[in-house]
Design goal:
335 residues; alpha/beta; Rossmann fold; 2 domains; seven-stranded parallel β-sheet; five-stranded parallel β-sheet; UDP-galactopyranose mutase
Length: 335
Amino acid sequence: MNNLVVYILDIGAYSGGGEALYQLGCDLRGLGVDARVVAWGKHDVLPQKFKRYIARGLPLVKPEEAKQCAEGIIIVPENATHLLFEFVHLQPIIWWLSYNNYDGIMAWNSVESITRAMQTTYDANIRRLGHWCINTLRHCRPNFPIAHCMNLVGSYYAEQMVQRHFNVVTQKLVHPIGNDFLTAGRYDDFSHRKNIVLYNPSKPSRLMRSLLKRNAFTYTPINGLNFNQMIELYRTAKLYVDFGNFPGPERMPKEAAYNGCNVLVRSIHAAATDDVMIPMQYKLSRNVSVLQVERKIREMLDNYEEQLCDFNAFRQMIADMEIDYREQVKQIFIH
């Protein structure tokens, strides 16, 4: 496989999953694999942290090059499998960075009210319906056949769901936290912490909105920050909470825990599995009330130092992910 050109499809999603694709490209090139990123759609403004991968020698090419390649590999994320029809000469690989974002199913936000869930998933579902109709007309099937692909899974949750729904063999490729955080190192200074509760505003939920409205604690959003500002916040706060959709392994809970925050989530999707390796007492039920959450937050703030040891296994798992990931890349692509 390492003698073939490996194309990695970039559909313009510049989240943690999008960065994982660019990082994979650089890692493959470091192993002697000719990996290139295919820029699908408009790429007028590439975020600075993505430009760094290009500066390290990762080529950014047009789709036409990959389409004309007679022999090679194409890697797509699970939300772009419909584009595999465009690369008929290439060996298809799907990297399931989540399951819920798979473009072969209807999108839904189960942590929102029905009205808001319909509003926030409407555009995605219209696009998917359009893809299914076009694919059916052109290829006599709505979705690219999963069984014809190599299926890489980026989490325990994705592994469970892909195997259950498609009955296919999967291989693990679990991406670690970002290079910046790995370079900064694990932070074990737990003193002088403040009663700050961090959250990710890009993952909204009905529960989080209620908590913010009641304003019982100092809630601080993680958005619009550079790396230095983020790591300073992680190393100051006591608690990170995440009550939004949890379609994949999610980087922010890991980044927060790696830098000394304790973590509170709702037991949904990947958060219900060992992707978030914390005791069940810190995984709230789907039907938890706002008052119950506030009591739990108060308990965790008041007992921060006493509860630190409950997160040791999670922090160690995060620390080990980089080595595990490197071995997984070699096993999959170098043979």
